[in-house]
Fold this sequence. Notes:
Layout: H1 3-6, E1 10-11, E2 16-19, E3 24-26, E4 30-33, E5 36-39, E6 43-49, E7 54-59, E8 73-81, E9 85-93, E10 96-107, E11 130-135, E12 144-147, E13 154-157, E14 167-168, E15 173-175, E16 182-184
Parallel strand pairs: 3-7, 10-12
Antiparallel strand pairs: 1-6, 2-5, 4-5, 6-7, 8-9, 8-11, 9-10, 11-12, 11-13, 14-15, 15-16
Amino acid sequence: xxxxxxxxxxxxxxxxxxxxxxxxxxxxxxxxxxxxxxxxxxxxxxxxxxxxxxxxxxxxxxxxxxxxxxxxxxxxxxxxxxxxxxxxxxxxxxxxxxxxxxxxxxxxxxxxxxxxxxxxxxxxxxxxxxxxxxxxxxxxxxxxxxxxxxxxxxxxxxxxxxxxxxxxxxxxxxxxxxxxxxxxxxxxxxxxx
Length: 193
């Protein structure tokens, strides 16, 4: 890759920039997939000299143009559910609050790591719940596939029918502190930083 020709080139999300090899490493605003470095946001390409080669970064004047990439942890709101999946709106990627949400789908088989055939969507998430999920490799063009099949992922905020924020009482239940009514959820084990 010739540095002077490619430096400050305009990138868009998903643009394949170069090979991910011993001289080119994915940095901020990029990700590596199947041996190539791709842009994860719209901006200008920067090659930062390292000891061995270059760190490939994309810098944007508006960092909000970030898009979810496979492996990202996202915060999403559950919008609708049915027997096979839950439709979600991705509100944050990591610590970055998005200016516009992205569509996500949490499929029944991606809710838990074990006993996948016994999972019920209604017993795991409900409309209005806020979840932490991992972005899976993209299969559909219109939405991102999400997974809560890790202990740290799942429902983090839920409201009871009385409109009160519920508290987790186990891995599978949350309880309303006012009415003491319990509801089933796939509860996230939130790890303090």
